[in-house]
Amino acid sequence: MPEREVNLDVEVDIRDAGTAVLSVGGELDIETATLLHHHLANQFLHGRRHLVLDLSPLDFMDSSGLNVLIRAARDAREAGGDLHLAAPTPAVRRILEITGLTMTTPLHADVAEALAAAGRAA
Questions:
Q1: What whole-number distance in Å separates Cα of residue 8 and Cα of residue 15?
Q2: Beta bridge partners of 65
Q3: Tens of pLDDT along the chain (122 residues)?
Q4: What is the helix (H) or strand (E) element at residue 36, kind and residue range?
Q5: Span between the terminal Cα atoms of the chain, in Å
Q6: Is 16 exposed, middle or buried (0-12, 13-18, 19+ CB in 10 A)?
Q7: Structure pTM?
Q8: pLDDT at site 4
Q9: Are 18 and 47 in contact (CB under 8 A)?
Q10: Residues with Cβ within 8 Å of residue 1, at least 6 apart in sequence
Q11: Dihedral (C-alpha) 71, 34, 112, 102: value to the nearest 10 degrees?
Q12: CB under 8 Å to 89, separation ≥6 — which residues?
């Protein structure tokens, strides 16, 4: 059986010593969740406690991806920071809302709004 190509792109934009924006595109599922987790853990390792995830290029997310977001939000809070989610597609937004993640993790219309909120939290 041929291996499926990993369909997740993560671009990291360091905004300052404590803040990073990660643009997450493609499919966040059981095969790609570990890759995103590693990117997020690397940001925490380098002292960035305020993370913004730009979800606008994310086409699909399953429960594995949701678990990575939940863990990242918890890790950020434990480090004295926060996780902000920005611009999810309608399908991803629905998953975030029906699972209740938006009750504990801020959801923003765009990256600029999320960064402004992260700056207020800093």
A1: 22
A2: none
A3: 455 567 999 999 999 999 999 999 999 999 999 999 999 999 999 999 999 999 999 999 999 999 999 999 999 999 999 999 999 999 999 999 999 999 999 999 999 999 999 987 65
A4: helix 33-45
A5: 48
A6: exposed
A7: 0.92
A8: 55
A9: yes
A10: none
A11: -40
A12: 55, 56, 58, 59
- Residues present in the chain in total: 122
Residue 102 Rama label (left phi>0; alpha psi -120 to 50; beta): alpha
Match 């924006």 to its residue by tokens. 21
Residue identified by tokens 């966040």 is 28
Q: Hey, what amino acid is at 55?
A: L
Judged by DSSP in three states, 17 sits in coil
CA dist 79 and 65 (Å) reads 21
